[in-house]
Specification:
about 130 residues, alpha/beta, Rossmann fold, 6-stranded mixed sheet, 4 helices, about 15% strand, elongated
Length: about 130
């Protein structure tokens, strides 16, 4: 959304929107480095969508995290049941949730959900309170 806003205002002198875009990139790099410090063999991305009930993941923030992880040589698997492709950004897509859970050491999830309760110890999420489902 902020990248689109920046494009819309490309001819208007401003600094704030570019600063937000830069800040988002910095945050993605920080998250990737924080995950890598856990020294996983395989990182799983649970859903590419940004919001519950959404089917849009074209520019989701997790894609930046995926790029950072892959640039460091990390093996990344994706669980996204609405994705028709067998790979996304060079990562294998796993359609069976139990298979996905068993293959990964860390699960990156935008929000905690009941589907991940049994592997809560593997979940890396920004959902501090667990009530934004």
């Amino acid at each position: 959304d902020t990248k689109q806003l920046l494009a819309n205002y490309k001819d208007v002198p401003q600094n704030l929107i570019q600063s937000i875009v830069d800040s988002n990139s910095t945050r993605q790099a920080f998250i990737a480095e924080d995950i890598l410090e856990r020294q996983p063999q395989t990182v799983g991305i649970y859903r590419l969508i940004m919001k519950v009930g959404s089917d849009n993941f074209r520019e989701s923030s997790v894609q930046g995290v995926i790029k950072h992880l892959r640039a460091q040589g990390m093996r990344v698997l994706i669980y996204e049941p609405i994705l028709q492709e067998s790979s996304f950004y060079g990562c294998d897509v796993v359609l069976d949730l139990d298979d996905f859970k068993s293959q990964v050491d860390v699960i990156v999830s935008n929000r905690m959900c009941t589907e991940l309760d049994d592997v809560r110890h593997k979940v890396y999420s920004r959902d501090v309170f667990g009530n934004d489902i």
